[in-house]
Specification:
single chain; alpha+beta; Alpha-Beta Plaits; binds ligand 2BA; N-reg_PII/ATP_PRibTrfase_C; Transcriptional regulator
Length: about 110
Amino acid sequence: MKMVVAVVQDKDSNKLADALVDRNYRATKLATTGGFLKAGNTTFMIGVEDHQVEGVLDLIKENCQSRSQLVAPVSPMGGNADAYVPYPVEVEVGGATVFVLPVEHFQQF
Ligand code: 2BA
């Protein structure tokens, strides 16, 4: 068994959740925050049999698109003004960041 952990953008999360239910995959959605943008994103935990991993990855790929996002400048406020960038910077946020982890034991009570 594997645990697929996928960090996706909030905009894609409902579409992906619906697609997972349609295909009978079980998932848990967590409200998370990206460390860099400090903006909300969504993390899915999807427990599947090994042979289902490719199907889940395809579904994530189909339902999550990459977009550019602007990072607002943060005032140095006593910090190092040399590193301060006074204008918004555009970053490309991926469709999904995915980790596939082995599951040692699975049990439901
Ligand atoms: P954030 O950490 O908010 O990152 C958003 C986007 O900002 C990233 O998109 C990347 O394009 C950029 N970025 C992140 N750290 C950067 C840095 N140190 N310098 C320059 N640009 C940087 P993605 O790479 O597609 O990541 C989207 C979200 O996925 C991340 O949101 C984070 O929540 C998660 N993520 C990405 N890589 C991860 C990892 N290795 N471990 C855990 N979570 C990760």
